[in-house]
Amino acid sequence: MSAVLTLENLSYTYGQGTPFEKRAVNNVSLEINKGELVGIIGHTGSGKSTLVQMLNGLIKPNEGKVILDGEDIWKNPKEIRSVRFKVGMVFQYPEYQLFEETVYKDIAFGPANKGITGAELDSAVKKAAEFTGLKPQLLEKSPFDLSGGEKRRAAIAGVIAMDPQVLVLDEPTAGLDPMGREVLLSQIVDYHKQRQNTVLLVSHSMEDIARVADRIIVMNNSELFMYEDTKTVFSHGKELSKIGLRVPQITRIMLELRERGVDVPRGILTTDEAFSVLTRLLKKEGKLW
Amino acid sequence: MVRDVAFGQYFPGKSIIHRLDSRAKILLLIGYIVIIFCAFNYFSLSLVALLSAVMIALSKISPKFYFKSLKVIIFVVIFTSLLNLFYGTGEIIAQWWIFKVTVGGINRAVFVTVRIICLILASSCLTFTTAPTELTDAIERLMKPLNKLHFPVHEIAMMMSLALRFVPTLLEETDKITSAQKARGADMESGNILKRVKALIPILIPLFVSSFRRAYEIATAMECRCYHGGNGRTRMKIIHMTKRDVMAFAVLAFVILGVILCNIFIPTVI
User: Fold this and answer.
1) In the predicted model, is pLDDT for residue A120 greater than 90?
2) Record: contact B206-A96, CB cut-off 8 A
3) Fewer CB within 10 Å of terminal CB in chain B, N or C?
């Protein structure tokens, strides 16, 4: 698999040269492969948000490089805007960025900035709306008349419509009801599968991450703590809890069982998986038929 | 970016100026501004400027920040002093077309420059050393007599403190929204003026919307805590005048006296 994004010794310090200096990202090097869905987890203030904002050049690193498709994004600082179309970024609570008269126009803002016009623009907007599950009749409404969940969808559609190679979502499900979270998450997965794009998902919900991510970046104290596939990361329950994170509930139960001598594998991520493992085990011991 | 403006910022500290009663500071500032404009010759002007320098030194805040606050008004200073330079009367020193530079003009230009600089330095000293809440508190207390004229003193002070409290929040919000729109490819840096003003729309509209949302939220939150205006409201922190404040007034009185004496005994320049 080829790397779409490579980070080399990336560092960033806020307020450099002032008394309020604070190192937010320290010497992070990693590769993100094309077509992967990568989760980013870490304690509040661990540097996740700063890290992802460096990926599309919103923050210029003090040291190190961000290499997108084999090219340093800061090679030509005047062209940094073109990077933003390649690495789409959905911020936390993106609904607060809506501003146009209609939802349609708002979704079209990004692709229009990219230079897309006419029928192509129309289809980009409609496809993006479809991906995020926005009903067509909502497109002509004012974004301020939508419900909270619909606003969130509209804002995400606004980024998806730019058709970025890499889509970065910072806590896309924060503040949504359980049903809304579930639906939005599966739409993101569908989008990922259909477009074969790279998706980076920052989240505090370990359950969400465990369900969808191929690999996980764990940030701690501005540094890269771990970058492994999902099963491996979540089989390190103890290390994670030391840095203020936890593993999904079901994974924790299975790890506990294992510690008490039950023969279950490490890194079980979903209830379904746990169910099949446990029933098999019970059948083997003759306690279940 | 927006944060670089030093004028009106507050720097917490424990200097003598910080510890002065905020009401006293406002009155002292008003007194000082009056004498800035009562200095009519170079002796009294330097006395006034000296007081500014003393204030800056006593505030224990790096002069760097005072310079920064001057930067904001540098154009006003240059513009007014140039204008004054050519409007003077008296002995002509240089002449070109309709412009003539006179001794009176030079004097006026110097006076106006020093006066504006002193004015900004002294007001910066007040805002640098006084927390916004203290300031509005002091204004409320000082304006209390106006209550008798049915002037809503408390309400105005409350509005002021709410507005001040939201300045940093709005700055942060502006940064966030700017980033979000930039991420959607908004172009803020290029194009002519019209294009740049248009580029602000995607930032200003969300900012307006969220300001209204915040206003409603804070109104509800205040009502939930039974806020009902200023009647019968007591304060947690009651400010008292102390010896320090009396001393400060004495210093100002001394300078005022000095300025008056200079004005009487030394000939007026402008």
Assistant:
1) yes
2) yes
3) N
